[in-house]
Specification:
The protein is of the alpha+beta class and about 270 residues long. The protein has 8 helices and 12 strands. The mean pLDDT is about 95.
Length: about 270
């Protein structure tokens, strides 16, 4: 079967106060892509008012949602799945992560296979904290299991060039990404994840398209770089058939991040 996975940092769930124009654009994007699994970061407000926004999102995209609340920051993470996938287990870790981690295991229709998905949003404040978070993600990368880890890692990749415009960032934003030499962008977080066995789908398929900033947020806190990733176990990496950073007029304005989609061909 074809398994299409979308990950997207939505910038406050697409809402600017009471204005939901970006949220509507994001829902349009999700419905256009029609993923089997959608991993969402910054699902802000989805745990309030009886989870009204969570249920509203489920209805509008036709997917079931699993929410991991982030009690310290309110920047919740979530995983949405199509009804064809059967949920088997869901775990939340808000103790070891600056925001939260959502982990969902599903069974695939027509197969005996199970896939574990993790939606992550690593700490924006500095690589030392992200390295600690990465240590908790390393144990999920068992090579023979089908596992996928995706989200906003706030980190540069060892496979990518130095972020464009990095030197032009204001010091309080640039320091979030600095390596120990305090000169270049830190790449240790992604390097540690790969050392644990996670495979960077974009790099594996030779696509290094930047995911931040989007066209409407160029004067923000980001250099031009890849900081949103789809990582897989070695077993699932062998099944990857496509990867794309979705850059178009819709996604130019819907968030400060661009969404990323990958497709996997899983034999029955």
């Amino acid at each position: 079967m074809k398994l299409k996975v979308l990950t997207y940092n939505t910038l406050f769930a697409g809402r600017d106060g009471m204005e939901a124009r970006r949220a509507k654009a994001q829902i349009e994007l999700i419905n256009n892509v029609s993923p089997d699994v959608f991993l969402m970061q910054e699902a802000k407000g989805f745990d309030g008012n009886g989870a009204r926004l969570l249920y509203e999102m489920e209805a509008r995209i036709g997917m079931r949602g699993f929410l991991a609340p982030a009690p310290r920051t309110g920047q919740n993470v979530a995983i949405f799945i199509r009804p064809t996938l059967t949920p088997l287990a869901f775990e939340v870790d808000s103790a070891n992560f600056h925001h939260a981690l959502a982990v969902l295991t599903v069974s695939l229709p027509g197969t005996e296979k199970q896939v574990t998905f993790a939606s992550a949003h690593l700490c924006p404040n500095g690589p030392v904290v992200r390295q600690r978070e990465a240590a908790y993600l390393a144990v999920m990368a068992a090579p023979d299991n089908l596992a996928l880890l995706a989200g906003d890692f706030n980190s540069a990749s060892p496979h990518d060039p130095e972020p464009e415009g990095f030197d032009a960032l204001s010091p309080h934003h640039r320091t979030r990404y600095l390596a120990e030499d305090l000169k270049i962008a830190d790449r240790s977080v992604l390097a540690h994840l790969e050392a644990a066995g996670w495979v960077d789908t974009g790099a594996a398929l030779d696509d290094h398209t930047p995911t931040v900033p989007s066209a409407s947020f160029v004067a923000s806190e980001f250099a031009v770089m890849r900081c949103d990733y789809i990582m897989t176990s070695k077993a699932l990496a062998a099944l990857a058939s496509s990867y794309e950073v979705i850059r178009n007029p819709l996604t130019d304005a819907a968030s400060d991040h661009y969404p990323v989609v990958a497709t996997f061909t899983v034999p029955s």
